[in-house]
Amino acid sequence: MGVLPALYPRELLWAHDILPAEIWDPPGELNRANAHLQPTICPVVKRSLEFMLATSDIVNTGYLIPHTCDSLQNLATLTKDLIRIHPPIRTFYNPKGPFTQNSEAFYRQQLKGFEQALAAEFGPLNPEKLTAACELSQRMDTVKQQLARHRSRDELQLSNRNYFRLIRAGEFMVPEEYIALLEDTISSRQNPMGSRIKIMVSGILPPDDELLELLDATDVVICAEDLLCGNRRVPLDQVDLTDDPLRFITDRTFSLPPCSTKANSLQERAVYLNKLAVDAEAHGILFNLVKFCEPELFDHQALVKHFKQCGYPALSIETELGSRNQAQLLTRLEAFLEMLSQDRAV
Amino acid sequence: MPNYCFAGVDVGSLSTDVVLIDETGTSLSEIVVATGVDGSTAARKAFETALETAGLKEAEVKSVTATGYGRRTVDFASQHTTEISCHGLGAHLLFPNTGTVIDIGGQDSKVISVDSKGRMLDFAMNDKCAAGTGRFLEVMAQRLELSITDFSDPINVQGEGVQISSTCTVFAESEVISLLTKRIPRQQIINGLQRSIVSRIWSMITTVGLEAEVTLTGGVALNQGLVKVLEERVRSRLNIPANPQTVGALGAAHMARRRSGSV
Amino acid sequence: MSVLANSRYYFMKDLGAPALMKLQELGKRRRRTESTVFGPALKTNKRLKQLLSRHYYLARFAPKNKPIAWVTSGAPVELLRVFGFYTIYPENHSALVGARKSGSELCSIAEEAGFSQDLCSYARIDMGHMLSGKTPAGKLPKPDLLFCSNNICQTVLYWYKAMAYHYDIPLLILDAPFVAEEQSEADIQYLASQMEDLIPQLERFTGKIFDAIEFESILTRSKETSLTWRAVLETMQAKPAPMTIFDAFGHLAPVVSLRGLPVAYDYYQLLLEELEDRVAKGIGGIRNEKHRLIWDNIAVWYQVRYLATFFAERGMNFVTATYTNAWAETTGYLDPKDPFKSMAKTYGQIILNKHLQYRLDLMKHMIRSFRVSGMVMHSTRSCKPYSVGQYDLRKRLAKDLDLPSVIIDADIADDRIWSESQVLTRLEAFCENLDGADHA
User: Fold this and answer.
1) How far is C177 from chain A (nearest CA, A)?
2) Are the Cβ atoms of A102 and C356 closer than 8 angstroms?
């Protein structure tokens, strides 16, 4: 099942033997999407729509479009109610507010409702499968947490490009296989060669390939990430498994790191990013903003200001996803790296 | 006669500049040529001319640093550094109390804050569109049927200018056309346009923060009208180099010198 | 709350402000020229001006006397009214700024501080004000508390988060689940329980005890106000419609910002009376009503006059809009005797929080009942929930109802976003189309 950004109860899908295939930035030219969406809509939504229209006859298990922001919200109803693409569209509302008795109760209802919808389509749920799915989910979180720790210590022998390829492979791989791949990567870790320039990145998606190549060429490592497609979906600590799978899924959802798409205060986000930077010993932070992404652009102003006031180097880059030949952007990144290496120079 | 020298090569989209300095950091020659279609060739030509002017041979050049848009095409350079670092350093060398550098080039503009050693603290670039660059001025001067010199006359920025609301060069041009049709005096339009450019720059200044002294580099520094408006906005005199265009190459030459351990 | 500040506020409210308004009136030399395209100006316009001027004027004196809350337009303000908050609506303020063409200035301030120009202009204007204190409304009191519901969009949540951080004040959120099909029991329960939980929080904040009886009467007043607003809008079903939608955009302000207060209800009664009178006498908002149109999306606040004139000159009147209707549409659910659940239904189902099929059906209903023969859609990057889906709504209405329409690209409050030649070309083509359809 195609799943659009960002948060969704994967355990329920796994329990029904459904493999989520996450759709973030499908490549290709935009043709059909422009007939339905204004030019000022973010490329994640545009590209997703393009993909959905282009594959309308092929994808028959349809899509899940979780509620993340205004544009995705409307994309769901647009494709379902107005364009009426052939494959079915399902939605799932993620509560935006903080964890309270109300939001917890509501979320449980959402899970139950979603589960019933899945059962109606794909057959009754085997409770053992759901328990197994939660265990798998916990295992995956643990491995991802380990991966992030080793990356922060620069112990993984992976270029930036390959590191993010690895992160994003989880978007379509069978979970057990993905866990094996991650464990494999972790087991081949080594102590860092020397100390090199480390930066952390915050945003929705990782920087474009061209920028990652530049970082690799200049021996700079992205040691920590606060990406919605990545660690913003990995709980900060281990979530306990109980005999109530819905409890696990709920607890897990509410223990995810702060994100611009939710009601997390800017204070929370600043504290979180600070800690991430300190723990990973990052020399600077790169904000990778997707053009027209409202939640990110709103939070960004205060976060950049916060870092700059602390005298911490910060660079902001705006991406339209899939652009090539970005000489100016590369120059900016280069200048930022020159800035970071000034203090280390002879 | 110096034993050896260092070269800075700045390959911009419009012009390519080379600055040669000796081991003490004294400038030996400064050459500016048009980049044309091939930055690599222009760089070589400018380099050779600079050597000739200084009476030196290539073997006497210890190190070359290339900067600017086409820096990677300079095959005889041993280092590539962004024009941001180079402008920052260049401005600092010419005006050691520089805190903020404003560079308005042909195709882009930037604001750089530097420390007391000429190192970058922060920067902002306008690299997405022509508004706030020399290109904007060219387009507008042409539309008003004026030479850049006449356009830049400081007399044109006296008093109030007409408000140009478009943030985009293309739309601003349309706006200018419609203002001309409404018979708004050219002087008021020029005034408005100069202020409009300064607004773009001001945005970058607020991002980076304003620290005295302020040094203006890039070809547009010769636009006296703009300088006047900018000085009003930043509320201080601006340091303007004698050769504002070659500041990047100067910075690059000094980078080459520093890197080779000759400092 | 000091006694002195208290007395000063009430003095200003009951005596000072009205006196000032009167003086201002006398001071103005009114040159009333008869318009050739518009009908006579509504007498109630004067009252609207008074009401809003007074509201913003009094805001300056409110600080020490009452707690100040800044509120989103879709939030259940009744919860704050019962605790005596003085409320300010940043969206209303931004619309005002936009109408004065001061939007660009405040937006620039926000942009210089690092807010992207791609963000909603209401928010940028608000940020610009937050950072500089500048406003054509004189002075806005600093908020003590923020109250935000995302039933109109998610952007307000991001915006209010930024405000909460800047002002370092509490932010109360009412999370309204998007209605993708039908509003579920879980949705209602979630909304109701969130609102119930706000009560003890507000009690702690204000030091007042929740008065359930007072709350019921506030809700009743709110409901009656909204229903009166609905009646006001329905007068435009008459041919000719007694006012234009551009008038209605202005008259919208009290039901948004003063809802729950007696003054808003009285205002709409006055307006309704005048409109019913005009209907009876056949007085139209424009002189020569040849075509009746529907407007979609928020107004282009800085070009209301321009657009109103353009259409009036061509005998075209906007008799309905999805925007103005939003504060009347779900009022029927409100039941003061079952406050929280009914508020959950009322506030959780406003148009922007519901799927596009609902919007399409609603638009069709409005087109039919208001006898509309054309549509203008305003498309703006400032409002994604409104704008995303417009292209297809337009196509469906063209297909199902044979409705001629046009989309114009502009903005709600950033006056820099206006390409006159582009807009004019599109509108003229649309008008030719409409007129041509007549002769077909």
Assistant:
1) 6
2) no
